[in-house]
Amino acid sequence: MIQYGDTMILFEDGKPKQFLTVTQGQTYQNKYGAYHHYTFLVKPGEEILSKNGTGPIYLMTPNPHLITETVPHKTQILFMADISMIILKLCLKPGQRVIESGTGSGSLSCSLAAAVGHKGRLFTYEFNKERANNGKELFAKLKINQATCFWRDVYANGFLKGEDTENQGEFPQESSIDAIFLDLPQPWLALDHSKKMIKKGGRICCFSPCIEQVQKTALELKQQGWKNLETLECLKRHFERRVKQEQSLFDDVQKKVCTDQNKRVTYSAGINQAYGHTGYLTFAQYI
Amino acid sequence: MEIIEEDTWVCLEDNRNESKIVKVNEKKMVGWRKHKFDIGVLLHKQYNTFWKVDKTNAVVEISSDQFYDNTDLDNQIDDANIEITKTNKDLFDFNDSQKLTQEEILSLKKQKEGEEIVDEVIQNSKTFEQKTEFSKAKYLKRKKEKYICCFMVLKTTIENVHKTQFLETPQKLNFMRVDSLAFFMQLSSITQNSNILMFDNANGIAVSAVAERLDGEGSISTVFWNHTKSNLRDYWPIQQMNFSEEILKSIKLIKNLEDIEKNENKYTHLLIAGEFKFTEIFEKYLKLVAVGGIIVVFSTYLEKLHEVAEQLLSSGLCGKIDVLDSFMRYHQVLENRTHPKVEMNAFGGYLLQTYKLK
Ligand SMILES: C[S@@+](CC[C@H](N)C(=O)[O-])C[C@H]1O[C@@H](n2cnc3c(N)ncnc32)[C@H](O)[C@@H]1O
């Protein structure tokens, strides 16, 4: 059962739309009408109607995929295609300890945290104070207890416990981390620090939009002795089903004589609107 | 440091970037790359170590430098700072006029180490010296890959178990490319305590990935294609992942289809990986999925997914239905020669995802 204080994903018109925190005394308003929050105290996924009995909406339990679709954007975020590959190729599994920087909007963080599960840990670092606080709030709201967000410039200060006393919570130890992910403008500046943290056999992934960044990162990775480098890009493409009524060349349109009068055929078509590029993922292993 | 125990499956990744998954037991012979060697040598050794098969077919440990000297050779070519303004002006076609006969090379293999053979082959090539630095390096790469057999020992992961099988017989994985498997997992958004109904016709690779994520906290009722006679042990990815007892216990193999309906709780996920008659699955089992439940289907055929989409749409029980695929390619990244890799696997399959809303 959904309770007051829970943050859920709101579905409108059958699609994920936004985060919604169920709060006593509030109403939600959309084009179909108003919805009292007290009508939200049902099972996740159950149909909820507006006061005028229209416009079914649904409150779904947040999961990594839905979070990425609806998380408020404070920065450019990573999407499902890149996230999928990052998690699979970093070989994340429950119980592992992972480092991420920067936190940005937390889209990837939530997926990383889910992949390591409640027995694992995610340490995520962000040097913009507002975003670092946003990260902390996000984890609290979504009850992602295995994730800790630090306010830190990782180029300068790395990942270990330091002088910055405003950062509370458990810090990771040297050589204790299974995987590291960097989505920073200059990932090569954080590789020295990363090397300190990673376990033998651990993996790193750097995301960069530009190939020049990738080249610098790859060069630095090689110089530092990281092995098994691999760079890839991954994009998703959507398809839709279209129903067509086909007009034969041989039909006499004037006389309205059609050979297959009611012939409707369904075809698949790719959807044109898509990302042509997000970034390159560069993976390496520390041996 | 973790040590390789008896009866554990490990992944061997060689200097050609190919791999093999083997179970380590004392005095166990395995055949790979025309060699037959005793893999038992790896018992009680560390992971992420490097090994070479020598001329007597013995497996001996080598340093990481020795390994990488014979692997990742494209990278070394770049380091050699090769002039990139090559011209075709002085280039002429030549066969590799090798003075050694096939028999001579074969007998060399018994007497000498891989590195020594490579040296001899080069010395006996009439044309090696006339090659450009670049094609010398390429030649060396080919010969090293051919005559030197060395590998690294890794823990098995979903990624390397998948990769090994996909290179060999992708049809056994229902042509589910690595990115499709990754999408499948992300779209399924498995969280602990999920109660999953799965249909896997990709030899258990999808079930393994889901089971690993579930980590024993939750349950998977899975139907394999030949469900009446199947046994979990028949599905090599499940074995190769060295799952703990808890994880194995969370996988319930359905042999009698009626058992699917006997589950007390509704299913939080209905996941299908590979070819089944999808419409009959949804006709019978969609009602067993809880409100808010996640539905994901992987197929090689777009039309089949659209058939499902139509069925789900007309049932009126589901939200927006996404049908998608993935475009993925690898890139060669070198200082002066960065470009998408020439070889790519151009087709990875299609996925459908939706939520049950009623
Ligand atoms: C593109 S965003 C990351 C988005 C994130 N991956 C997501 O999916 O939401 C990059 C973030 O890195 C942060 N950043 C840049 N340089 C940093 C540094 N030196 N230390 C820590 N964070 C940094 C930026 O403030 C920004 O929020």
Automatic annotation (TrEMBL), chain A:
<keyword id="KW-0808">Transferase</keyword>
<feature type="binding site">
    <location>
        <position position="153"/>
    </location>
    <ligand>
        <name>S-adenosyl-L-methionine</name>
    </ligand>
</feature>
<dbReference type="InterPro" id="IPR014816">
    <property type="entry name" value="tRNA_MeTrfase_Gcd14"/>
</dbReference>
<dbReference type="GO" id="GO:0030488">
    <property type="term" value="P:tRNA methylation"/>
</dbReference>
<dbReference type="InterPro" id="IPR049470">
    <property type="entry name" value="TRM61_C"/>
</dbReference>
<dbReference type="GO" id="GO:0031515">
    <property type="term" value="C:tRNA (m1A) methyltransferase complex"/>
</dbReference>
<feature type="domain" description="tRNA (adenine(58)-N(1))-methyltransferase catalytic subunit TRM61 C-terminal">
    <location>
        <begin position="57"/>
        <end position="264"/>
    </location>
</feature>
<feature type="binding site">
    <location>
        <position position="183"/>
    </location>
    <ligand>
        <name>S-adenosyl-L-methionine</name>
    </ligand>
</feature>
<dbReference type="GO" id="GO:0005634">
    <property type="term" value="C:nucleus"/>
</dbReference>
<dbReference type="GO" id="GO:0160107">
    <property type="term" value="F:tRNA (adenine(58)-N1)-methyltransferase activity"/>
</dbReference>
<keyword id="KW-0949">S-adenosyl-L-methionine</keyword>
<dbReference type="Pfam" id="PF08704">
    <property type="entry name" value="GCD14"/>
</dbReference>
<comment type="similarity">
    <text>Belongs to the class I-like SAM-binding methyltransferase superfamily. TRM61 family.</text>
</comment>
<keyword id="KW-0539">Nucleus</keyword>
<keyword id="KW-0819">tRNA processing</keyword>
<feature type="binding site">
    <location>
        <begin position="105"/>
        <end position="108"/>
    </location>
    <ligand>
        <name>S-adenosyl-L-methionine</name>
    </ligand>
</feature>
<feature type="binding site">
    <location>
        <position position="126"/>
    </location>
    <ligand>
        <name>S-adenosyl-L-methionine</name>
    </ligand>
</feature>
<dbReference type="InterPro" id="IPR029063">
    <property type="entry name" value="SAM-dependent_MTases_sf"/>
</dbReference>
<keyword id="KW-0489">Methyltransferase</keyword>
<protein>
    <recommendedName>
        <fullName>tRNA (adenine(58)-N(1))-methyltransferase</fullName>
        <ecNumber>2.1.1.220</ecNumber>
    </recommendedName>
</protein>
Automatic annotation (TrEMBL), chain B:
<dbReference type="GO" id="GO:0031515">
    <property type="term" value="C:tRNA (m1A) methyltransferase complex"/>
</dbReference>
<keyword id="KW-0539">Nucleus</keyword>
<dbReference type="InterPro" id="IPR017423">
    <property type="entry name" value="TRM6"/>
</dbReference>
<protein>
    <recommendedName>
        <fullName>tRNA (adenine(58)-N(1))-methyltransferase non-catalytic subunit TRM6</fullName>
    </recommendedName>
</protein>
<keyword id="KW-0819">tRNA processing</keyword>
<dbReference type="InterPro" id="IPR018247">
    <property type="entry name" value="EF_Hand_1_Ca_BS"/>
</dbReference>
<dbReference type="GO" id="GO:0005634">
    <property type="term" value="C:nucleus"/>
</dbReference>
<dbReference type="Pfam" id="PF04189">
    <property type="entry name" value="Gcd10p"/>
</dbReference>
<comment type="similarity">
    <text>Belongs to the TRM6/GCD10 family.</text>
</comment>
<dbReference type="InterPro" id="IPR029063">
    <property type="entry name" value="SAM-dependent_MTases_sf"/>
</dbReference>
<dbReference type="GO" id="GO:0030488">
    <property type="term" value="P:tRNA methylation"/>
</dbReference>
